[in-house]
Amino acid sequence: MPVKTKKEALDFVKRHGAVLESAKGTIPSLAHAIAGEPIRGSWWGHPKGNQIYMLLNDVSDSPDVVRCRLADGKITLVHRRLWPALVKMASAFDSDRLSAVREEHTATGAHRMTTIKFPDWVSDDVHAAAKSISVAEAEEQLSSLITNRTARKSEARR
Fold first, then answer.
1. How many CA atoms lie within 13 A of 111 on its CB side?
2. Is residue 94 a part of any domain in this protein?
């Protein structure tokens, strides 16, 4: 069933913990969930392109979601519930992939990407929560991201 509302989109991200914004990959894609089907080519050309645009912006603007390039270097939406695990396991990831990515619209209407380096975007309460979980708990919470990262490193060595 397609994701149709801001609440459903945020619930989708929360349920999965981390999803791709629109790309195809090894974890779910929010754009595909909104479309209700895999998208061929750019989502801009999809009949639900406007809805996808609005809901992606709504989710990206949520204080409960951080945009980063965590999964395969693609824009990944990570729900707040995984942030302590990310902090705990930060050394398992390239720190650039943990930087928060924000898209801004300039006065001329152009798009500009800005980043907030990790861990500068992480709040004190998230740091405290990270100290209270074990590495095993963090690994379990991030299993789909860690498994895929490890599998890609193994494939690269072949």
1. 4
2. yes
The reported pTM is 0.89
pLDDT in tens, 67-98: 999 998 999 999 999 999 999 999 999 989 99
Looking at the domain assignment, is residue 1 inside a domain? Answer: no
Q: What is the DSSP string of 6-35?
A: HHHHHHHHHHHSEEESSS-SSS-BHHHHHH
143: containing domain: 6-157
The H or E element spanning position 131 is helix 124-131
Residue 107 lies in a domain: yes
Tokens 């990959």 — which residue? Answer: 25
Average pLDDT of the chain, as a whole number: 90
pLDDT band, very low/low/confident/very high, at 53 (cuts 50, 70, 90):
very high
What do you get for the CA distance between the two ends of the chain, in Å? Answer: 39
Nearest-CA neighbor of 29 among 16, 20, 38, 37?
20
